[in-house]
Amino acid sequence: MTPKLFAASTVSLLLATVAQAADSGPIVIGVPVGLSGANSVVAPSVVQEAQLAVDEINTAGGVLGRKLQLEVADDASGAAGAQKAFDSLIYQKKVDALISMETSAARNAGLPAVSKGRVPFIYTSFYEGHSCNKYLFVDAWVPEQQVPPIVDNFAKEKNAKTYFLIGSDYAFGRGMLGFTRSYIEKTGGKVVGEEYLPMDGADWTPILSKLKDAKPDAIITSTAGGAPNVTLTKQMRAAGINLHYANLAVDEGTAKSMGADATGIYLSASYVTGIDSPENKKFLDAANKKFGADLKTPNDLSVPEYEAVYLYKLAVEKAGSTDPAKVIEAMPTVSFTGPRGAIVMDKQHHAPLTMYLGQVQSDGTVKVAATFKDVDPGEQCPNLK
Amino acid sequence: MLLLLDILTTAAILFVVSVGLLAIFGVLKIVNFAHGAWLTIGAYCAVVAVKLGLNPWAGLPIAFVAGALLGGVAELLIIRPLYRRPLDAILATWGLGIVIGQLIALAFGRDVQLIPNLMSGTVRVLSVDYSVYRLFMLFAALAIGVLFALTIEGTRLGLSARAVIMNETLARSLGIDTDRVRLATFMIGAGLAALAGVLLTPLTSVDPNMGVAWLIGAFMLVMVADTSYLALAAACLVFGGAQVLVSTFVSPVLGGISVAVLAALLLRINPRGFSRA
Amino acid sequence: MPEDTALLNGRPASTTALEWRAPAAAALVAALIVWISPLVLGAFAANVLTRSMLYATLAVTVDLLWGFTGILTFGQAAFFGVGAYATAMTMTSLGSTPAWMAAALALAIVLPMVLGLVVGWLSFYHGSTPLYASVISLVFPIVVTQLVYSGGLLTGSSSGLVGYDTLPLDLEGFFRLSGLVMVAVTLAAWVFVRSDAGKLLVAVRDNDVRCAYLGVSPRRVQITLTVALAGVAGVAGFLFAHASGVVAPENTGFLFGTQVVIWVALGGRGSLLGPVFATLAIDYLSASLSGDLPFLWQLVLGAAFVIIIIFLPDGVAGLARRASASIFRSSKQTRVPRIALAAPHSAVERSATLLKVSGLARSFGSLSVLENINLEIRPGELVSIVGPNGAGKTTLIRCLSDGSEPFKGVVEIGGKPMKGLTPDRVVALGVGRKFQVASIFESLTVAECLRLARTTSETPSGIGSAPRLSLPVASIEILRLTGLIDLIASPAGLLSHGMKQALELGMVLALEPRLILLDEPTAGLTKAERATIGTVLRHLTAEAGYAIILVEHDLDFVREISSRVVVLHQGRLVLDGAVDDVVNSETVRTIYSGGGHV
After folding, report:
1. Inter-chain contact A74–C294, Cβ cutoff 8 Å?
2. Of A153, B17, C205, C360, which has the maximum CB count within 10 A?
3. C244 touches chain A (CB under 8 A)
4. Nearest CA to C261 among B98, B103, B29, B259?
5. The domain A10-141+275-351: what is its CATH number?
6. Do β-strands C246-247 and C367-377 pair in parallel, antiparallel, or remain unpaired?
7. Which residues from chain B sit within 8 angstroms of residue A40, using beta carbons?
8. Closest-CA residue in chain A for B207?
9. A211 touches chain B (CB under 8 A)
10. Residues in contact with A267: Cβ distance below 8 Å, sequence separation at least 6, in sequence order
């Protein structure tokens, strides 16, 4: 046997084995998430929610008779780290799908690999909107759903006319505040300051001094989820700033750990632990049972992860296989009723969501002030029907 | 007024962070690139103190002792062999910083730690509401500076240290145990760094890599100050002021590098920096 | 006059031809491996290694700067990042037609080189320290990163740039392109460091003062190297932008810069291949480990780095070299050039004043070291300067050879004032200086040291080693009389004290300087060695028309060879005249016995 023939037959034998394994082995879900860096505060909750969903589904028999398996990789909350994480998950671990919450920097950096590797990707983080890719689906909110309730409330209930905007300098921060600014101006308000720090920046002193000088009626912030939220709020309170403060990017978990500094913050979320529905109660019971004292507060950044795993399960079952082309065709058609209600990603790969306007209380919980049912995400990706 | 307070408090914070590095650079003539890691060690001592149920202020003595002890070990094992190779000492201490950071991450996790503030609230200072903690830092810097000055000028160790700074060979030939002076200085410098780490916790997020951002600024200030703590105070004021002014009127991003850039340019023009010949 | 000393050392002529074959063959094999690899590697490995190979190219540039030239730099990452960003920004904002791609490549080369010029000017100047150069190399990437962060939509800020059009190559294409660039750069570096010009790097690292006093400005070498390697880093950045499709601020930062230094240190600085393999191995392993392991891995790497720096500064390559040396026990056949006689410079006019010193004064603060020195020296004179320690002799020599010394008064060499000229430019006026402690290049061989001394008369080749080394008769004379001619191939660092002095004298004489400044040339020499040096010096002044200024304590030596003696005491010139008059004078006796202090 010539070396070439030997090599060829070995390769084809291996391929055959692999192909066989592909149909009966576990379905691997990759979770690239910020285990280090800015998102590291919220990442543990995301991983927990994914684990909870996977365990529940596996106990109930799995998907098409196959078990689900998680592969977690650290994207360092940034572009460079995401590139490595996506490479590792797509080419080394050969995942069947990617389901995760990440910073926009990480998401954008990973999309080329997603397209090249043809892997369905459910993005479970709220973000600035308009990220479009035929493999990308989003089950979390976009500014069109989150910002109007806050600005309307400030304008009508608190007579706020001038606003100061602070954000992290990347796609999310700029995207969110850009939308906020145009909504404020459209509804008759005025923006008296708009300042940014890089995602990893921790010294807000000069920006806070500017804020004090500008004397706005209200503050709206949009930093990366996690550490930047903490440092900004801490330093704001230390500087004695107690104006009406809406944070577009804080989740209940981070708010709770901020302690007293978080009291009074307004947020607009698609999930709060206080949601009064049978699905939410069942979910919270299961979470508490599984993780006990180690449970990280389920929040607006992690609950969509739980629901996304179920949505993927439903899509695979409808498609009859994990073949990417079939799965992405089935994805916009399946609906899952989870802690946040019925989720369908049928609006140009985005989902209408029920939004809750709430205020953080002194004990760290969020008190809901108003509810808005099935808010439309708007025209996010007109080219993906 | 706000601007003036920002400048003074920023200078104070920079001084507190850099003074430990200055002591080590002056006496041992090496740049301790693990300084950032010692800041982190200090901050995590505060985390430990809180976890043990103690008052966060208890973190201060814990940090100083822990920092000094670990500093002693580092000096004996890593700095001493590289006595004649200052550039290699920079690299070795950088490596040490990496090792410490990873050990902390393994022990405490990579995520950000949140601990209660040492001090919160504001106080009215001349028609302006200003952060109590930042004002406290002014006093902390003064206290540390005075203590440092008293040690250098008034104690035997300080005298020996000054002799070593000026001429180590001569000091040794006069009977001063320079090895012990170097060890003691490194321990004090490391202890001060850890102390600074605790004092930083209300101002920044606590995670395994928090120290790196402060390292470069501290390093450049020490280069400019050479061996004089008065020069360090002056440098902190001038460059800290520049940082605040650039951050406020140009951009916070460029403000962050003003210390490094201005220091580098100053050293190019006058290699002795702020210290007089 | 000695005849052509072509076969004086008895060794065969150089083997330049053979020197080419080994590296060329190795490069060819490496290129072949690079070509075939994509067929056997999986997509993940190919993806990762494409980037690793570009990092390895960067590591080669860091090794050239640090391992060979002694410049510890964290800044190459910034040049890499600037190249990558220039490329991505061009593709994103201006367009991705082939014309724009070519423009991006040009920008990726030119922009880093311009920045390299700025960084070089900042870091390397007369009197700069290696620490300061490292400081600048640290600040520079931080500045670049922050500029990227403040660039808003233009640079993508924290998000970086993604989604721009790239070169129309597939994964295999990029792998091969990166690999071939890596092989080419490594080969070029290898050839360069083996060449005569490449020895300049080691010379600058070992003894930059000596370089300056051989007429070669070390600053120019350092700046030129920085600029050239910035361009190479920029090319690697260009390829990175295309191969990875994502450019992020982390690619420009100082953390990345320190990582490259770590790879070079672990691989073995100064070995070229060590850093290449270390980079490939470590980067690939880092990418392959998932879950918690990357953090344990970082810990292991950090610890290994500390251990290597302290105990094994030569890295793994050094270890391998020592292991293979003990196994194979072969002596390196260094190629040895043939010594030949160089045609002398034009003869010196005997009558013109060579050195004129008027009112020279030098003080350090309030301490005055030299006061009102007036001196005139003509070709053919052998002037000895004597005086007790602390009289200012070495300071005087320094003022005569280094124009950047802040002295008062006028010093003219051949009629040209030398105030303000750095040593390399003073050497160009025809001055050669020999130091009290033998100032040579310890890592180079005797032949290489001598060849470097000839740099200003014969530009060294950048790609090979010339088979012939032309030296003036005076140098050859020294080599022959001291027996150094038989040790042409040995490393200068292994020579005895006397031989080192002889080598330095040989190097200085190779400059064919009209005025030679010697600072205690007989210190530590045996009687025989002293006699030899004396003969040569007398010969140089009497027959070749050189002028020599000699600082000496050995009054017998002074009496034997000098044509004139000058006495310096407490910074003032107290006597200047014929040998016998001065040596026997009362003044000298009083001064040397400690009396006569003002």
Report:
1. yes
2. B17
3. yes
4. B98
5. 3.40.50.2300
6. unpaired
7. 110-112, 207
8. A37
9. no
10. A246, A247, A248, A250, A255, A357, A358, A359, A360, A366
If DSSP codes are grouped into helix, strand and coil, which group holds residue C574? Answer: strand
**Lookup: tokens for C37:** 């690899």
Q: In this model, does residue A13 exceed pLDDT 60?
A: no
What burial letters (b/e) apply to C292-327, b meaning 16+ CB within 10 Å?
eebbebbbebbbbbbebbbebbbbbbbebeeeeeee
Q: Flag whether pLDDT at A343 surpasses 90.
A: yes
Q: What is the pLDDT of residues A353-382, one digit of tens each?
A: 999 999 999 888 888 888 988 899 989 998
The beta-strand segments (E) located in chain A are 27-33, 68-74, 97-100, 121-123, 136-138, 162-168, 190-197, 218-222, 244-247, 266-269, 335-338, 341-344, 353-360, 366-375
pLDDT of residue B171: 87
The distance from CA A290 to its chain's CA centroid, rounded to whole angstroms, is 22
The string of pLDDT tens digits covering residues A236-292 is 888 888 899 999 988 888 888 787 888 999 999 999 888 889 999 999 999 999 999
SS3 C1: coil
C549 φ, ψ (degrees, to nearest 5): -110, 130
Question: What separation in angstroms does the CA of C486 have from each of A185, C489, C579?
Answer: 89, 8, 36
Residue C559, both tokens: 């009496």
CA-based angle B72:B73:B75, to the nearest 5? Answer: 65
Cα separation values, A315 from A64, A124, B24, C266, C272, Å? 11, 16, 62, 49, 53
Q: Which of B86, B95, B253 has the CB atom closest to C131's CB atom?
A: B86
Chain C CB within 8 Å of residue A78 CB? yes
Beta-carbon separation of B216 and C296 below 8 A: no
The answer, yes or no, to whether residue A7 has pLDDT greater than 60, is no
Residues found in chain C:
598
| Residue owning tokens 């350090």 | C364
Strands (E), C98-180: 161-162
| Chain A residues with beta carbon closer than 8 angstroms to that of B6 | 205-206, 209
Domains A10-141+275-351 and A143-269 share a fold: yes
* pLDDT class of C568 with cuts at 50, 70, 90: confident
Position C3 scores a pLDDT of 39
User: Residue A271 — φ and ψ, nearest 5°?
Assistant: -145, 135
In angstroms, the separation between the Cα of residue A193 and the nearest Cα of chain C is 17
Residue whose pair of structure tokens reads 């320290």 in the numeric block: C129
CB proximity C298 to A under 8 Å: no
With CA atoms as reference, report the closest residue to C348 among C370, C324, C306, C380. C380
Question: Given pLDDT bands bounded at 50, 70 and 90, which one contains residue A11?
Answer: low
Question: Which fold would CATH assign to domain A143-269?
Answer: Rossmann fold (3.40.50)
* Average of per-residue pLDDT values in chain A: 88
Please answer whether residues C506 and C475 qualify as being in contact, where contact means their C-beta atoms are separated by less than 8 angstroms: yes
Average pLDDT over residues B127-148: 89
Question: How does pLDDT run across A62-82, given as a tens digit for each residue?
Answer: 999 999 999 999 898 888 889
Nearest to B205 among A35, A197, A227 (CB): A227
Q: Do B252 and A240 touch (CB under 8 A)?
A: no
Spatial contact of B2 and B128, defined as CB atoms under 8 Å apart: yes
Q: Do C158 and A87 touch (CB under 8 A)?
A: no
Buried b (16+ CB within 10 A) or exposed e, A326-341: bbbebbbebebebbbb
Chain mean position to CA A239:
30
| pTM: predicted TM-score of the whole model, two decimal places | 0.88
For residue C6, what pLDDT is reported? 40
| Token pair recorded at residue C417 | 């004032």
For chain A, which residues make up each domain, given as ranges? 10-141+275-351, 143-269
What is the arithmetic mean of pLDDT over B38-63?
91
| Contact status, residue A105 vs residue A82, Cβ threshold 8 Å | yes
User: Does the distance separating the beta carbons of A227 and B133 come in below 8 Å?
Assistant: no
